[in-house]
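re the bet — no i am not wrong, look at it urself. input seq straight from the record:
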Amino acid sequence: MTTPTPPAADLPAPTGPPGPTDPAPTDLAAPTDPAPTDLAAPTDPAPDPTAPSTRALRVIALCGFLLLAGCLVLTAVLGLVDAVEGDGVGGGFLTAGLWSLALGAAAGTAALAVPRRALVAAQYALAFAAPVLAALD
């Protein structure tokens, strides 16, 4: 025989705030294991399929030396035209243009030794900057 349950009116009213009545189980261990070691982390990202090869970068850097030679001639012509028609004195922009050519040659040499896209881009940018700076003078 079962004992009858008292009706809801006969139950005592809760006195405190509702909360968990069951304590946390103590038989479960906290996760202390480190990450699994059988999963290897990627050591090298996948290579960019659109990136130029090192050989192509070296060829482009060699062509950059031809561009530097052409820009040197154009810078010299602009400097001589300024010397004949102007005040006869090379200004700061002409000097900056010549330094730009020297730095472009250094960047090209570095691009031949360690082919990087940024070095080749710097070589070309410095080559194009030299006649522009000389024209500003």
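see?? DSSP finds three helices and no strands in the chain. told u. also The mean pLDDT is 82. so pay up
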